[in-house]
Every structure is written in structure tokens, then in C-alpha cells.
Amino acid sequence: MNNQPIPTNIVAMREFMRERFPEAHAHMEPESEPVRTGLSLLDGLGLGKGAVTEVVGTQAGIGLLIACLLERETAVWEPTALVDGCDAFDPWSVPPNALERLLWLRCRETEQAVKATDLLLRDGNIPLVLLDLQLHPLRTVQGMPSSVWHRLRLLAEKSGCTLCVLTPGRAIPCARSRVMLESRFTLADQHEEHRELAAKLRLRTDRQPQAVLGSAPAWKAIA
Fold first, then answer.
1. Domain residue ranges in the chain
2. Is residue 114 within 8 Å of 153, Cβ to Cβ?
3. 26-73 pLDDT, tens per residue?
4. CB atoms within 10 A of CB 156
């Protein structure tokens, strides 16, 4: 039997519990099952169920990525929510069948878009939620309190939803993974199909789950 005296104040109690049960206070990252889409570009992003992925890129690359996500193989039976932060999504940019399972929320302000995302994650009935803030000023996105992003992360973990936030620059400190998306397009590229354009996208993993660190090259061309 342990005869160690029980502390009488809350600070000492916390230290006592931390020393007595260190495994209960260890920081643990929850397991995150990757989302499989059938497209190597999307699978290379490291989207995880119940996790937040931040994708940083230019509008051309982000628009193409959204189109690819809406045309993924699993979109036939899985609904997708697009929280359109600047009401910039062009529904004519994707085939009509890609819109059949899409919930499109048209917003204009960062806080409005974040609140809409919060409601979707609390509901938990849409497996993939896209929050497009790419056209918002970086200062505005980075100025959001960190508690907002942590709340969305916790909601995603609780509901098992995949949250992909598209931003103009690094802004989400608690993102499970962060991908820097770059594109090099010319005027001639506007006549090519999405899958052909997707082969020209390049991505760099800035942050990724601990389980897959170390072996991937810094830059990858995804077809």
C-alpha cells in the first residue's frame, strides 16, 4: 500500500496524479483511417477520417482539387459538403452527376463559413466536409482564434467526418496534416480534362501523421 501523503491543493494534486499515472496524461494522437478516393492525387493528400487536413495553394490549384474531390469514385454514394467561403464555386466546372450528392453552402465571410462547418461536423452525417477559405485574406484566416480550429478538430474526431480546409497560407495549428499545393498551368491547359490537369499538380507535405513520416520525398508529382 502506498503511504505517500495526499496533496491538499489543486496544483499539487495535478502533479501528484501526473506522477502516479503518467500513462493517463501522455499526449496521444488518435488513429486516423485514410480516405480512399480512387485517385492517386487525392489519396496522396493524406485525408484522414475524423481528422483535419489543411491544403494551402493558389486558386487554380484549389479549384482543380475541389473538382477532383467531387468527381472521386466514392462520391457516387458518399455525400460531400462544400462550404464555399467566398461564393466562388462554379457548378459548371464539374459534370452534373458530381453535383447529385453535393451540399453547397454559399458564404461570404470567414466567420460565417466556420460556423456553417461547425454545424455540419456536429450533425456528423456528411463524411467529407470541404471548407474553402482560399480567397479570404490570409490575415483574416490567420486571425481566427486557435480555439476555433481546435473545436472543429474535436468535432471531426467525435463525428468521424473528414474536414479538409483550403487556405491561402498556413493558418491551422492543429491540422493533422498540411499540404502545400502548387500548379503550373498555361492558357492551353484550360482545354484539358481534370484528370489530365491533375497530373500537373505538385504537392509538398508540410505536416503529416506521425505514422507516415520519414520515407516520402519532399516533392511528389501526383498523377
1. 32-221
2. no
3. 444 445 566 676 666 667 666 888 999 999 988 777 888 888 888 887
4. 24
